[in-house]
Specification:
It holds the Pfam family UTRA. The protein is an alpha+beta fold and 242 residues long. It is built from eight helices and ten strands. Helices cover 29% and strands 34% of the residues. It is elongated and about 65 Å long.
Length: 242
């Protein structure tokens, strides 16, 4: 970083932000790389830490950097091209882009099927379901929070298996479902609520893309009802016709 020259016409925090942005643009800071700490940035620019925090907050609002609690601030990765097709697998998509896919179980519970979920999964209203909340990451960057519902009668150990594998594809394989397809996909946009914003490391007011989908087996029988919330600044959906 270069030391800033005095200039009363530009706020100090803006000059710090512009300096860091130039470093990102010219490759001095690579995608996914951790930035120097606040103290180091402040010393390099001869400003106080409050000025640095405001500069980093402005860059985060623009989606250029991401603060991870207890770890530091990282340069955001470029948007991942995420194809929407009849066979959509998070691990395959992320891996094909040169990233390491990761899955983490956030919560799991059992609940009775609402009328809407019962209709989607072709079950009786009130039928027992397993609900799984998972976080999917590409390298260190959280990409989406997903809620998945499946029949507790057909997949009784889904929670335990997901905790072990971190993948619904591997869970289904344990029950003999070696392949499945996407029967329907609906996409809407929204502002992340407080819970999703925290899990996705998004600032308050940042957008998410909501994908509601139904997966079925080879005979067309419903398997999974899914509601995923993607960080809009980290993915670009690509609709493919087959």
């Amino acid at each position: 970083m270069t030391t800033l020259e005095p200039d009363s016409g530009v706020a100090l925090w803006r000059k710090v932000a512009d300096s860091i942005e130039r470093g990102i643009a010219d490759g001095h800071y690579a995608a996914g790389e951790k930035l120097p700490g606040e103290v180091e940035i402040a010393q390099a620019h001869r400003v106080n830490r409050h000025t640095v925090r405001r500069a980093l907050a402005a860059l985060a609002e623009r989606g250029l950097v991401r603060a991870e609690r207890g770890s530091g601030t990282y340069v955001e990765t470029s948007r991942i091209a995420y194809p929407l097709r009849s066979r959509t697998r998070f691990s395959e998509i992320v891996g094909a882009g040169g990233h390491e896919p990761r899955g983490r179980l956030l919560a799991a519970s059992r609940e009775a099927a609402t009328k809407d979920l019962a209709r989607q999964l072709d079950l009786a209203a009130g039928a027992p379901l397993i609900r799984i909340e998972g976080l999917r990451l590409a390298d260190r960057a959280p990409i989406c929070v997903g809620t998945t519902w499946c029949s507790a009668e057909r997949f009784p150990e889904a929670e335990t298996l997901y905790r072990r594998f971190g993948s619904m594809t591997k869970v289904l394989a344990q029950y003999g479902v070696c392949d499945y397809r996407r029967a329907s996909t609906r996409i809407t946009a929204a502002i992340a609520d407080a819970g999703d914003a925290a899990r996705l490391d998004l600032g308050i007011g940042r957008p998410v893309l909501i994908v509601e989908a139904l997966d079925v087996d080879g005979e067309g029988h419903p398997l999974l009802a899914i509601r995923s919330r993607f960080a809009a600044e980290r993915v670009q959906f690509v609709v493919e016709t087959e």
